[in-house]
Known about the structure:
two-stranded antiparallel sheet, binds flavin mononucleotide, alpha/beta, 7 strands, 6 helices
Amino acid sequence: MKKLLYIDACIRNVESRTKRIATPIVEALKEKYQVDTLVLNELPLDIVKERLIQKRVNGVIEPEVMSWAEKVRDADRIVIAAPFWDMSFPAALKVFFELCSIFNVTFGSDDKTCFGNCRAEKMLYITTRGMDIPTGDVLEQATPYLKALSWLWGIGPLQVVAAQNMDYVSSDVIEEKIAVAIAEGMEIVKVF
Ligand SMILES: Cc1cc2nc3c(=O)[nH]c(=O)nc-3n(C[C@H](O)[C@H](O)[C@H](O)COP(=O)(O)O)c2cc1C
């Protein structure tokens, strides 16, 4: 069975609307993929600062961090669930990306430029936003970054399931938006 890596960056955990959308979508994907889940709340995510860079320069990578990078590299599909925070995604996810961006693991380079080493042909990003900001809006800085990182790591096209304006509507409308996003995700599952 092919492998799917699910990166759960739903920091509010049980309170998370993003997680409510992602959970049934990932459950459905378990029919097609062997799913490996990384819950960022549960990982020791060290901010990449001087000490860590020095270790890296000397070829020292924590085995646990290396195992995350290898999961990213070896997954056939990747699903990321992350709420919209400060016009992008939570810093925990950026730290995770920086930790996994390991030379000769997730990416390599020749004498001219970098190239990706990851095998995932598709990546799905699931999110909810407080304000009424659509995917691709200039104020929405999560998907441009994810597209750029996908390029660096050699990951195939990014698909997005998003619900927006979640903080300015009634609870009934929130529920409707969640249902619509799950339905959208289920359509993607069929061809993912
Ligand atoms: C720390 C934090 C930062 C946020 N920043 C933004 C923001 O910049 N723009 C926005 O539209 N909503 C923002 N929101 C609102 C969330 O995007 C919105 O409530 C979303 O549905 C939360 O997802 P969750 O329920 O999965 O945690 C923020 C919420 C939190 C907790």
